[in-house]
Amino acid sequence: MKQSLFENRHRVEWDRFSLTLDGLERGKKTSGASSFPADYRRLCHQLALARERGYSSFLVDSLQQLALRGHQQLYRQRGQLGAKALAFILDGFPRLVREQWHFVLAAGLLFFASLIGFALLVYWIPELIYNLVPAEQVRQMQEMYNPESGQLGRTPERAASEDWVMFGYYIMHNIGIAFQTFASGLLFGLGSAFFLVFNGLMIGAVAGHLTHIGFGQTFWSFVIGHGAFELTAIVLAGAAGLQLGWALIAPGRLRRAEALRTAARTSVGLICGVMLFLVIAAFIEAYWSSMTGPAPAIKYLVGAVLWSLVSAYLLFAGRTRHAPE
């Protein structure tokens, strides 16, 4: 292709990219900012073509200057994105949880009241577990937490799985539960309330049954560590779902669609934090909770520390704005 044809074909694109760069360098948002990474990659490809085809040094140098400026802005944007993510983790997410404390409290009561209440009932009346959990699943749970099985928190089929495989499994399983609890809030909050209670009943049934048959030490020492992040994440996912439901029930002076959009912005922020909590929970569950070497007392101590850290983080982090916005 002749240089003149190459220039005519791409000149408008280069001018638009230059205008986007001018705006980014002045710290202003421009219409081309969202497509900037793709535009930058395309410019680099065109620069490589110009060099390969031996076009004039004037054209090559001009494209080279645009590419250098683009490179600086691209990595500056990535750095800003990292800073915003860090600010959200250190500051934005815990403040968001505290701002939505009424939904968090409601979700926490639904989940933990059903969990603790049913755990006590099953402990006192063991037959109750079979009204909620199939007998085969009860048998699998007993195998997973049998002190003599030589494994912890895994069925015999998964006993040989590598930790990273289980890490991926835990992430997918937990995210599925959290998303189900959150998204079902669109049913005027009833779906989120149902799944909070249902999951609480299921966990409580297993906890009560295993404690009753004498497997309590293996069960509690297994769950106490990752439970700080996992159970908290379930509650927060439920709180986000309840917020969506409340926007539909009581939109105030807004139309329901507008109230839902407003609530969704906050709920999505909560869910982003939930995803982070679930990744941490999966990591702990795969690489720490399943270990059989540490004594139960050590696991209880580590679990107490993790619960304290999660509580302190949600209660106190972000009260003084110190992270970049």
UniProtKB/TrEMBL annotation:
Keyword Membrane: yes
Naturally occurring in which organism (per UniProt): Pseudomonas gregormendelii
InterPro entries in alphabetical order: SpoIIM-like (IPR002798)
Entry annotated with the keyword Transmembrane helix: yes
Keyword entries, A-Z: Membrane, Transmembrane, Transmembrane helix
Spans through the membrane: 103-125, 167-188, 227-248, 268-288, 300-318
Lineage: Bacteria, Pseudomonadati, Pseudomonadota, Gammaproteobacteria, Pseudomonadales
Pfam families, sorted: SpoIIM (PF01944)
Name of the featured protein: Stage II sporulation protein M
